[in-house]
Design a protein that fits this description.
The complex is a heterodimer of chains A (121) and B (279). Chain A is an alpha/beta fold. Chain A has helices spanning 50-60, 73-82, 95-103, and strands at residues 2-7, 25-30, 35-40, 65-68, 86-88, 109-110. Classes of the chains: A alpha/beta (121), B alpha/beta (279). The interface between A and B is medium-sized, with 19 and 15 residues.
């Protein structure tokens, strides 16, 4: 399966991004063959609805799970409705480490938006 | 004549000024378009005679017809539709109801539903003024639909005083539609001046006439006067800071206890408002 991560760079050892909708890159890691690819996050240029647009990119890349920083209400709602589980990246610094933590079942599920207020354009 | 009362910073006295101006002119329509927090009626104490719901439309996707081609999602500037391989979802709250997704859908799979976003009340104040007051449903994204709907109800009045939303948001801009004069209520403090400058800049791009009332004079500094002089904006009234007035405000009793000196200031303001809006 493919898991999506929010990163500041295109390598697995790059720092994770602290934002979801406006992160710099999405990393899509395939657990079946341990390969990954990086996609520049076009959603970060969106005037509004960046979280929702980011979910569209995640769906386009066939991700079945998301490891993310805090999620806003629109992104959370969209992921829940699409049946894509979201996990909290916490304070982990890079994709390499967080993927291992996730595979070991150490990451917390995100089911409710941590930020209740709507981000405004 | 339609006058919008604006502030920039909140708490400068926008509601105080707009309700008092209306009270001095019982024939005037008072509109509370500060739809996130309409509080003019704390003073006007209206008897409501009509409630008008405000709704906006949103897309509904027929999954039987949808082929998940992504055209709607690509088209939507607000990212209100997400198309996954086997499912299309709509985020109602961020839809701006432009109708574009239904137009670009090749399968005719999109229709529109309606959802409530606010309410408008119409009634008569204790002062005799007709009152139209808009309120957003808490948690809604935008108050603009409520304001637009309220303004359609205000067309037949000769004289209108509008309590606009503070700041320079979309709702503030929407409340200025069709106004002849923007009356900015400020206080002589650096914070209020800073926010007022943004309001002035907004009004200049809208090419709207403006005038300033300085409230709570005697506090702060004099910078606001220098700014108004440099920008050629007339200061048409000054209300001295008074603990008594603040206490009356807190009791919701300002109108009934209007002090002769404040009444005089506001009568002067009204005369200038009429003169400025004809200019």
């Amino acid at each position: 399966m493919i898991v999506a991560l929010c990163s500041t760079g295109t390598a697995l050892n790059a720092d994770l991004d602290s934002r979801f909708g406006r992160c710099s890159y999405f990393l899509f890691y395939n657990t079946d063959d341990s390969t990954f690819h990086a996609v520049e996050n076009e959603a970060r240029h969106a005037e509004g609805g960046a979280g929702s647009r980011a979910v569209q990119e995640i769906a386009d890349n066939r991700a079945e799970a998301v490891i993310a920083p805090e999620l806003g209400p629109q992104a959370m709602d969209a992921l829940n409705r699409l049946g894509i589980p979201a996990f909290r990246q916490g304070k982990t610094l890079n994709a390499d480490t967080v993927i291992k933590e996730w595979q070991d079942g150490k990451l917390e599920r995100q089911e409710k938006a941590s930020v209740q207020e709507m981000h405004r354009a | 004549m339609r006058v919008a009362v604006l502030s920039g910073k909140g708490g400068t006295g926008k509601t105080t000024v707009s309700t008092h101006l209306a009270a001095l002119n019982p024939d005037a329509l008072y509109m509370d378009l500060d739809v996130e927090e309409p509080n003019g009626d704390l003073f006007l104490k209206s008897e409501w005679i009509d409630e008008i719901p405000v709704t906006v439309s949103y897309p509904e996707v027929d999954e039987e017809l949808c082929t998940h081609c992504r055209k709607c999602s690509v088209f939507c500037q607000f990212n209100a539709l997400i198309v996954a391989p086997a499912m299309t979802i709509v985020l109602k709250e961020i839809c701006h109801a432009c109708g574009g997704c239904a137009m670009v859908c090749p399968e005719d799979a999109i229709s529109y539903g309606e959802r409530p976003v606010g309410e408008i009340q119409k009634g008569t104040a204790v002062t005799g003024n007709t009152v139209i007051s808009g309120a957003m449903t808490p948690g809604e994204y935008s108050g603009v639909p409520v304001i637009k709907k309220a303004l359609t109800l205000a067309v037949e009045y000769d004289m209108t005083v509008i309590d606009s939303p503070p700041g320079t948001s979309c709702t503030t801009v929407a409340s200025l539609e069709g106004c002849d004069l923007a009356l900015i209520v400020t206080e002589p403090t650096p914070f209020a001046l800073s926010d007022m400058k943004m309001v002035v800049e907004m009004l200049r791009t809208m090419d709207m006439s403006m005038a300033v009332i300085v409230n709570k004079t005697g506090l702060g500094d004099d910078e606001v006067y220098g700014y108004c002089r440099d920008e050629n904006i007339p200061v048409i009234g000054e209300i001295p800071f008074s603990r008594e007035l603040a206490e009356a405000y807190a009791e919701g009793e300002m109108l009934s206890q209007m002090k002769p000196d404040i009444k005089k200031v506001l009568e002067g303001v009204w005369e200038r408002v009429q003169a400025e809006s004809i200019k």
